[in-house]
Structure formats: C-alpha cells, structure tokens
Specification:
globular, Growth Hormone, Chain: A, mainly alpha
C-alpha cells in the first residue's frame, strides 16, 4: 500500500474533504469503544456472571492495550506510514466488536474486547498526527483541533444514548457499532495521506531522535498537562461527581447526565472560539486562564448548595479543557518534526491512558481519608500545577 507524498496531501495548510472526514471518523472511533457500551455494562455483568466489583474488567480489557501498544503504533506510523497503520487498526476494531457481539462466555467477550482495544490503541494518536501532518498553518491546526475535540465530546455524550437504545433491542447490539469502522477503513484506502519524511532513516537513528524529542523539557511539560487534564476528568469529574450528586443532592441518573452536558457546552465554546482567542492571547495566557477555570471547578464542586449549582463547576471544567487541550496539542504536533510526530503523540496518548487508569484509584484513596473534600482538594492541587507548567510548555505565541 503506497502513501502519497506531502505535495499531494496538503494545499495551503488545509485538509480536503476526504481527509477531514477521515480525521473526524477516526476521532469518533477513538471514544466509541467505551462510551457506546456503558449503558449495558450492568446487564452484561449479569449475563456473563461478572461480579459487580469486577465490572471494570470489560473496560480495562479495552483500554489496557493502549498503554503498551500506543507507542508501537506511533513508531509504525512514522516508519511505514499513517495509512498503513490506520487501516489495520480500524479493521481490528471492527473485528473485535463483531466478536463481542457473538460472544457466549465471559472469557470470549474479554478476549474480543482485548482485540478491539488493540485496534483502538493507535486511533487517538493517529487523528492528532494527521491534523499535524495536514494542517501546516498553526491557525488552521488550532481550528481543526478545536473542532475535532468538540466532535469527540459530542460523541462521548451521544454514543451512550445510541448504545442504550440498541441495547433495548438486543443486549449485545451496541458492539455492532464498531462495524462502521469498515467504511472508514475504505475511505482511508482511497484518501491521499502523507508519507513521513524520515521513513528511509535507520531504526536506530529514528529511535534516538524520537527519544530525544520525547525527553525535551517542553514536551515533558505538555505530557504533564495532558495527564492533569484527563486526571481531573476521570477522577473528580467522571468518578466522584455522580457520587457527590447522589449522596448530597439525591440526584437521579437523568439529572446527572443533564449536568454532564455542561462539560460539552464548555468544550464546544472553547473549540468554536479558539481561533479568535488565539489571535488575541498568547498560548501561555490561554493556558493560565484554563488553569483558573480548573481551579474554580475544583473549589466550587464540594461546596455547592444545590444540585443545579453543580452545573457551574462542571461548565468551568469544560471551558478549561476546551481552551487548554487544543493549545497543548497544537504545541505538541507543531513542535514535533514530521518524521517523528507519531511517536511523540503516542507518548502523549500513553500518558493519557495512565492518567485515566490511575486517577480514579488515587481519588478513591483520597475519598477514604477525607471524603469529597479530599477528592476535589487533590484535583485543586493538580490544577494548581498548571500555573507552573503553562509558562514552560506554552512559550510560543500562537499565529
């Protein structure tokens, strides 16, 4: 399979229609594997006799491969081309979903979830890499990152609803959504994508340059920012906000879901207005403003006097993520050379997976010691670190 060169893939720093659809589709599939099956997890546990305490195994079986395989996918994308990794990844993702649909035992569904997770391991890296490859102009790159992040947030909200409706028809049917990856793989096959400039260099030289890029002070700071953004999301917001809403405000699941929608509003606002904000403020200024939003969210959440007051801190978190993540990813993709971009972004993806895996457990320890104040106090300390990291990681002005 041959990847076309740079001259045929980007024009004036913008993606063509096929490339844009491919990036958007890849971004959506990067979040579908977990969100689409969330509504049927309790019934799956009952059907396959999985203890409530072990319910997370159906999620972990999908997410854990990404911790180990995202770096490998990044290396392969740099060495053999983006398309040559993307198409097999989408095919494995679809195959894993189909296998889950036909699973008849606990062992089978866990094994097929692992297969599906292997396919999904590189998707998050690849769509960010393609944005960096195809959007040569930083303003266009910021716009693409903001819109893609907004799409991912919307997918994260819509896929549970779609999966819930499909689960009413047949318990295993949400897994069939993965088959939509096959048309996307066909689109990838007929779409011109860039071949990295460094594919001809030796593996040793490539690895040395990749490790050198990953270990740069600015990139390490950007990895830390990603860890904090998703650590706050998966710890205090996703894991402990529902518990707080139920314990202190007797919130119902629909009410909690409605308040979560404020996160999407905040992220969407940041994504839509990022190009304008980038023209008026430096990357560092936007990062510091986002840090203030995160701190406000963590300060306000445990002291809300009513359930609907909780909408404000959730909205603050969404605004912070919508403002900071596109800026951080633009700095990461724009600063990495084309021939090692995927391995740098794969290191960032691994950092995010670690954050998603570790923070709920760490917040559990804080909750045991200091209740909700401990959880959100820990989130506040993490958010405060952004005031130190932003000046180091986001030194370049946005164009």
């Amino acid at each position: 399979m041959k990847d076309l060169g740079r001259n045929n893939t980007a024009c004036n720093g913008r993606m063509n229609t096929r490339q844009y659809l491919l990036v958007c589709g890849t971004a959506l599939f990067s979040v579908m594997g977990v969100s689409s099956v969330l509504p049927v997890l309790p019934l799956l546990a009952k059907t396959f006799r999985i203890a409530d305490s072990s319910l997370g195994i159906l999620i972990a079986a999908f997410t854990l491969p990404g911790i180990f395989l995202a770096p490998l996918g990044g290396v392969l994308a740099d060495r053999v081309g983006r398309k040559n990794v993307l198409i097999p990844s989408l095919a494995l993702f679809a195959l894993g979903g189909l296998g889950c649909f036909f699973s008849g035992s606990q062992t089978e569904i866990i094994l097929w979830r692992i297969v599906q997770g292997i396919g999904a391991a590189s998707l998050g890296t690849l769509y960010n890499t393609l944005i960096g490859d195809l959007c040569l102009d930083e303003a266009e790159r910021l716009k693409a990152l903001g819109r893609t992040m907004m799409l991912v947030a919307m997918g994260g909200a819509l896929f549970p609803a779609i999966g819930g409706v499909m689960g009413e028809w047949r318990l295993m049917s949400p897994f069939l959504l993965a088959l939509c990856a096959l048309p996307l793989a066909l689109l990838a096959f007929v779409t011109d994508l860039p071949r990295p400039a460094g594919t001809g260099q030796s593996l040793g030289s490539y690895m040395r340059q990749g490790v050198s890029r990953i270990s740069e002070r600015g990139n390490l700071s950007l990895f830390a920012i990603s860890f904090i953004i998703f650590g706050i999301l998966y710890g205090p917001i996703i894991t402990y906000f529902p518990l707080l809403a139920y314990a202190r405000h007797a919130a119902s699941p629909p009410q909690i879901g409605f308040i979560y929608a404020a996160t999407i509003l905040g992220i969407s606002f940041g994504g839509l207005f990022m190009p304008r904000l980038a023209r008026r403020f430096s990357a560092c200024e936007l990062g510091l403003c986002a840090a203030a939003f995160f701190c406000a969210a963590m300060l306000l959440m445990p002291y809300g006097t009513s359930l609907w007051f909780c909408t404000l801190p959730v909205l603050c978190y969404g605004l912070g993520q919508g403002m900071l993540y596109p800026v951080a990813m633009s700095a990461l993709t724009g600063g990495a050379p084309e021939h090692s971009r995927s391995i740098v972004l794969a290191a960032n993806a691994t950092t995010i997976r670690l954050s998603q895996t570790l923070m709920p457990s760490l917040c559990g320890v804080l909750f045991t010691w200091w209740n909700f104040e401990g959880v959100f106090g820990g989130g506040l300390l993490m958010a405060g670190l952004l005031f130190l990291l932003a000046p180091v990681a986001l030194r370049r002005d946005l164009q």
